[in-house]
Design brief:
Keywords: Membrane, Transmembrane, Transmembrane helix. This is Spore germination protein. It comes from Metabacillus halosaccharovorans. Belongs to the GerABKA family. The protein is α+β, with helices and mostly antiparallel strands and 473 residues long. The protein has four domains: 88 residues, no CATH class; 115 residues, no CATH class; 154 residues, no CATH class; 31 residues, no CATH class. The chain is built from 15 helices and twelve strands. β11 and β12 form a beta hairpin. α8 runs parallel beside α13 and α13 packs antiparallel against α14. The protein starts with 6 loop residues before the first strand and ends in a 6-residue tail after the last helix. The model has no long low-confidence stretch (mean pLDDT 88).
């Protein structure tokens, strides 16, 4: 370790002993060193490392001779104290420097109503946010360390007596068996423990909201926190959960159900509208009303490209604008997205590369794709449009139906931690439909989802709920 410039090894003495202490200055809190450790070292009240341990006002102190433990603790921000320069019998004092940003507003899942807290990169702070919302001894947290180089701390959370132990063991086993040198974010673990690594669909829910995680843990699911990541993974999950924003529970159930249905319609519109345009203009002119057909003909009169290339041109342009806006600095990215979209769209129509109608359709399709609350699922929706476009050019509406059949076959086979991904649609579970495509009142949610096989399936007594008139809206 001496080959590193930030490794400090210093010798000093008191009336009894000469002692050596070593540490990484970039990992140690110098205030803890100067105010708690050094005064105890310089005093004459100790004659052995055990007495020194009792003299230092720090809780986490370890006496050891294990070389691997010494190495790991030094790299974790501990101070090593020995009575000889190369002594292996040493005292390890925790003085870790914790640098983390404060709890801030959610950026990806922002909501107008509800809590305004989001996870940060510190796993200790994130666990604290969950503990505040579930102050119960049944909240179980198991910590692991993965990554040969990064030695990343991972915490697995669940609520005992509610969670299905099989789900917890599955998550624990898969994470414990990960063999990888560097784990930088929770997205690494998502890809490594998913049931199907080749599927474009995310099979674990990714969220930055502590209130959502606490609510889902109370249903009987398992959470995964990764040190250094401001996002928490939740599983097992279903397809419909990716289109449910946590804001839905802050509104009246009628309004929430309407918004959720609008969101699902927007997703279907985003995927299918451009392929339907290509299929109709390529094969199915007879399906277009005469008035609309005249408008389409006049709009495409000077366009030299076939419908497929015209649609691909605009779709790729939208994707380029999205990617450029995401990668550039915030203020520049917003300007590029707005100005670039207006300039390129207007110029492409005037140059005769695309029609006005398709420009409107693609813009609406892009707008509809932004309604997906979970960013990872939004990326999947963006990608799905392209195979549908190719199938529409190949076989028209029949090609769209064929592509849809392939998509449904894939979704029917897909699982999340061994649980059906399309539940409660397939296998059909009527009891779980109360919070899927629509959200029913809280008074009707007396049971936890059957798919999770919770240890306690009943959340509250229905009889008591009926007696209390104000339990719901």
């Amino acid at each position: 370790m001496r080959s590193s410039s930030d490794f400090i090894q210093y010798s000093d003495k008191n009336d009894h002993y000469q002692y050596w202490f070593s540490y990484f200055r970039t990992l140690v809190d110098t205030e803890t060193l100067q105010k708690k450790v050094m005064p105890a070292l310089k005093s004459n009240d100790w004659k052995s490392l055990l007495e020194l341990k009792n003299a230092i006002p720090i809780e986490e102190i370890l006496l050891t001779t294990d070389t691997n433990t010494i190495k790991d603790k030094l790299l974790d921000g501990y101070i090593m104290v020995t009575l000889t320069e190369y002594g292996i019998h040493c005292l390890l004092i925790k003085a870790t420097l914790n640098k983390a940003r404060d709890v801030s507003l959610p950026e990806v899942e922002f909501s107008v109503v509800g809590p305004k807290e989001a996870f940060v990169e510190s796993i200790e702070s994130n666990i604290n946010l969950i503990r505040k919302r579930i102050p119960d001894e049944k909240l179980r947290i198991r910590e692991l360390q993965i990554g040969d180089l990064s030695k990343t701390k991972v915490a697995i959370l669940c609520v005992e007596e509610i969670v299905d132990e099989e789900n917890f063991r599955t998550v624990f086993q898969r994470i414990n068996e990960i063999e990888f040198d560097q784990i930088s974010d929770s997205s690494f673990i998502t890809q490594m423990i998913s049931d199907n690594h080749n599927s474009p669909f995310p099979q674990l829910l990714d969220t930055e909201r502590p209130d959502r995680v606490a609510s889902i843990l109370a249903e009987g699911k398992v959470g995964v926190m990764v040190d250094g990541s401001p996002h928490v993974l939740i599983g097992p999950t279903t397809l419909v959960e990716f289109f449910s924003a946590f804001d839905d529970y802050f509104y009246n159930w009628v309004n929430a159900s309407f918004i959720r249905l609008v969101r699902l319609f927007a997703v279907a519109f985003s995927i299918l509208i451009t392929p339907i345009y290509v299929a109709a203009l390529t094969y199915h002119y007879e399906l277009i009303p005469n008035d609309l057909l005249n408008t389409l003909i006049s709009s495409r009169r000077e366009v030299p490209l076939p419908p497929l290339l015209e649609a691909l041109f605009l779709e790729l342009t939208i994707e380029l604008l999205r990617e450029a806006g995401a990668r550039l600095p915030t203020k520049v990215g917003q300007t590029i997205g707005i100005v670039g979209g207006i300039v390129i769209g207007t110029a492409s129509v005037e140059a005769g590369l695309t029609s006005n109608i398709l420009l409107i359709i693609v813009a609406l399709s892009a707008l509809a794709s932004f309604t997906t609350p979970i960013y990872a699922m939004g990326n999947t929706i963006r990608m799905l449009r392209f195979p549908f476009l190719l199938f529409a050019e190949w076989l028209g509406l029949l090609g769209i139906m064929l592509c849809f059949c392939f998509l449904m076959t894939h979704l029917l086979k897909l699982t999340s931690l061994g649980r059906p991904f399309l539940e409660p649609i397939y296998p059909p579970r009527t009891a779980d439909m109360k919070d899927s495509l629509i959200r029913l009142p809280f008074s009707l949610m007396a049971k936890r989802p059957q798919q999770l096989r919770p240890g306690k399936p009943i959340r509250f007594s229905i009889k008591k709920a009926k007696q209390n008139k104000d339990i719901d809206e």
